[in-house]
Amino acid sequence: MLYLFQEWTELVLRWFHVIAGIAWIGSSFYFIALDLSLRQSKNLPDKSHGEAWQVHGGGFYHLVKYLVAPSKMPSELTWFKWEAYATWVSGFALLALIYYAGAELYMIDILKYDLEKYEAVIISILGIVFGWVVYDVMCRISLKTNVYVLISSVFILITVMSWIYSEIFSYRGAFMQIGTVLGTIMVANVLMIIIPGQKKVVASLLANDTPNPIHGAIAKQRSLHNNYLTLPVIFIMISNHYPLIYATEYSWIIISIILIIGALVRHFFNVKHTGAKAPYWVTFPIIILASLIFYISDLGKPKLNQIKDTALIIKKIPKKTLIGAKEIIIAKCAMCHAQEPLWDDMRYAPKLVNLETSTDIINNIDNIYKQSVLSYAMPPGNISMLEEHERYLINQLYLSVNKLKNQ
Ligand code: HEC
Q1: Mean pLDDT of the chain
Q2: Which end of the chain is less congested by CB atoms within 10 angstroms, N or C?
């Protein structure tokens, strides 16, 4: 019963999380696109900045944007905040339920750091808070400086955090940690910056004061950041089904490249929505970066120690023994035991035992010995006529490899 209950809790929470996320990201996409599509016109009301006409679901919509605020407070106002909060709360609940409660499976890697569960949780929460605080300070400082300086600083911050966490946590834990850091930055932008700013504007309107335009400018900056972060965050959130991508040594670089790709894709749509010519040039850097990711994910997989040992053994075996035995095996076994067997109708090496290179032979030597020195099992029916003195040479190889292995 307990398992069933757990299963339902996780699925329902995830369901809720995804729905809240769709509502939030959907409105973020919508409003950025709306903002970019605003046009000037002569009959716009006082203090307005632009208008847009849209058609959806059987009706026409006429939207007008007031850059700071309208002169008078409207009687009804829809706020967009619960979508963001609900996404974060449900996301954090999932993180706690799956990653924190199962930290030994999903976060801790004892070969990196043999952390206690609670230590892993503290390190994760500290990182989430740290990410937001540093990002927020960067944005505040950068209001006076160049936007590219800010973008590069945030990019470096995330890449460094991503690297540090991949050194401390398991690869899966590190990936989710960075997803959480980014998601938290996005929600905190809404909770701590955008909504409080809008509240101040509403308060000055109600007090018949002129609202300070700085709140609108700051909110616009943060909301644009959120827009650029959405794609990478979603990538990270769905990536835990793909171990070849998240569970390799350089997955932290993959995150930083995805940040750039996600931003390029958003850039494409953001420019397109202004009505300008879509920047198709982004496809070139995207293709290059995507190929780079593909390549990097292959680099970081486990290095099979066996192969290293084998190389060493091969170096030390008496040359005559190795060459002699290898020649025999290639001549008498490799017509079947090859990646592309010559034997009729054979599509793979039998039992996937390849015997084509020195490494193949050394790695399979115990089995070769069993099949063709201790017995006449191979070649089957002695079809390739393996002579006794040839079996003797294979035996010599077996003996010297085992001597080296036991040293
Ligand atoms: C005519 C094709 C053929 C040739 C030649 C041949 N083998 Fe095989 N080998 C097979 C087949 C088929 C099997 C799978 C047998 C089975 O299904 O149990 C096999 C299986 C093996 C296995 C795996 C056994 C196991 O169950 O783990 C080894 C090791 C092996 N062969 C070594 C050799 C060696 C060494 C030679 C040369 C001296 C050799 N084979 C030559 C066809 C061949």
Answers
A1: 90
A2: N
CB-ligand 1 contact for 324 (6 Å cutoff): no
CA 37 vs CA 26, 194, 266, 271: distances in Å: 16, 21, 15, 10
Q: What are the strands, taking DSSP E only, across 164-294? A: none
- The CA distances from residue 239 to 41, 123, 172, 248, 334, in Å, are 45, 22, 9, 12, 41
* DSSP H or E stretch at residue 381: none
Residue with CA at minimum distance from ligand 1 atom 31? 378
- Of all protein residues, whose CA lies closest to atom 21 belonging to ligand 1? 350
Cα–Cα distance between 104 and 93 in angstroms, integer?
Answer: 18
Phi and psi based region of residue 58 (left: phi greater than 0; alpha: psi -120 to 50; beta: remaining)? left
Task: Please write the tens of the pLDDT for every residue from 235-251.
Answer: 999 998 888 888 888 98
Q: What is the mean pLDDT of residues 192-210?
A: 89
Q: Is the CB of 351 under 6 A from ligand 1?
A: yes
pLDDT at 109 (0 to 100) = 87
Q: Tell me, what's the pLDDT at 307?
A: 62
3-state DSSP assignment of residue 322: helix
Question: Residue 394: CB within 6 Å of ligand 1?
Answer: no
- Ligand 1 contact, 383 CB (< 6 A): yes
- The finding on whether 333 has its CB within 6 A of some atom of ligand 1 is yes
Q: Which amino acid is at 339?
A: Q
Q: What is the DSSP string of 106-141?
A: HTB-TTT----HHHHHHHHHHHHHHHHHHHHHHHHH
Residue 374 pLDDT greater than 90, yes or no: no
Best residue among 371, 376, 383, 393 to mutate for probing ligand 1's pocket (most ligand atoms within 8 Å of CB) is: 371
What separation, in Å, do the N-terminal and C-terminal C-alpha atoms of the chain show?
Answer: 54
Query: What local confidence, expressed as pLDDT, does residue 86 receive?
Result: 96
Which amino acid residue places its CA nearest to atom 10 of ligand 1?
350
Confidence of residue 114 (pLDDT cuts 50, 70, 90): confident
Among residues 264, 86, 253, 292, the alpha carbon closest in space to that of 175 is found at: 253
Q: What is the pTM of this model?
A: 0.69
303 pLDDT tier (thresholds 50, 70, 90)? low
On whether the CB atoms of residues 314 and 361 are closer than 8 A, the answer is no
- Per-residue pLDDT band for 145 (boundaries 50, 70, 90) equals low
